[in-house]
Design a protein that fits this description.
This protein has 248 residues and is an alpha/beta fold. It is 29% helix and 21% strand. The protein is built from 7 helices and 12 strands. Strands 3-2-1-4-5-12 form a 6-stranded parallel sheet, sandwiched between helices. It has a 6-stranded parallel sheet with strand order 6-11-10-7-8-9, with helices on one face. Strand 1, helix 1 (11-22) and strand 2 form a beta-alpha-beta unit. Helix 2 (52-62) packs across helix 3 and helix 5 (177-187) crosses helix 6. It is elongated, with a radius of gyration of 19 Å.
């Protein structure tokens, strides 16, 4: 009997959970715990870390997991490495649901850099209005350039004071192109810092930046381990042995 573990936290993982529930598949959805009020899922849900490779391997054995699906954020490289090692240790089949990264379109003004520290270095010395679209766990290095006016957007309000002055928007995506254009114009945004997450749910800010002619400091994805990977929910369902297609 098949029992899947979804390592989730993304819009793609939620789509997968809905399709698995429709198919009557036995599965557990796991949140990493970074969001205080995660979206409800149609599957049994757990929240929090596993305790590294050994903890994940113990969980796979204890819960009789037969298949693991890594549908974590493209920047969650440590979790992906842990999944590869834990599945190797337990002999559990593993697949990744990983959306393709964004690619440049005509009119894009991207500055592609490898990490957050490089993004800080690229920002100008003269005061600018910067939209940091990178998640709260990555913003601390920007305290090195406090001359800028920062706009941040989080799913949850910050639990602790920020290290620099910033205007915080609390909102959950997906976001629309019209909404992103209005936000950037109203706040006078002149620079955007983003991670190359890919997918449609967060793309509107990139399209808005192109339309407004704004520079985007684009942080490249970290290296993730080699493993079987696909880009669609339908392919995951086929891997699990279902012929159903998304929305069927």
């Amino acid at each position: 009997m098949t029992r899947a573990l979804i390592l989730g936290g993304t819009a793609d993982a939620s789509l997968l959970a809905a399709e698995i529930a429709r198919a009557g598949q036995d599965a557990i959805y796991s949140y990493g715990g970074r969001t205080r009020a995660p979206a409800d899922q149609p599957l049994p849900t757990r929240i929090g870390g596993f305790g590294g490779v050994s903890g994940l391997a113990d969980y796979i054995r204890r819960e009789a997991i037969t298949h693991v699906i890594d549908a974590t954020h493209p920047f969650a490289a440590e979790m992906s490495r842990n999944a590869v090692d834990a599945c190797a240790e337990t002999g559990t089949p593993l697949i990744a649901l990983e959306r393709a990264p964004w690619t440049r379109a005509p009119g894009d003004n991207w500055i592609e850099i490898p990490d957050v520290n490089a993004a800080v270095a690229v920002l100008p010395e003269a005061p600018a209005k910067v939209f940091l679209a990178i998640g709260r766990q990555h913003i601390a290095p920007f305290a090195a350039k406090p001359q800028h006016t920062y706009t941040l957007r989080f799913v949850d309000p910050p639990e602790t004071p920020l290290l620099f002055s910033a205007d915080v928007i609390v909102s959950r995506g997906p976001f629309t192109l019209d909404g992103e254009l209005e936000m950037m114009r109203r706040r006078g945004i002149t620079w955007i810092v983003a991670r190359n997450s890919g997918g449609d749910g967060a793309r509107a800010k990139i399209d808005a930046a192109r339309m407004l002619g704004l520079p985007v400091i684009m942080i490249s994805r970290p290296r993730r381990p080699e493993r079987l990977r696909v880009e669609s929910v339908a392919e995951i369902m086929q891997w699990l042995g279902h012929r159903t297609c998304l929305g069927a």
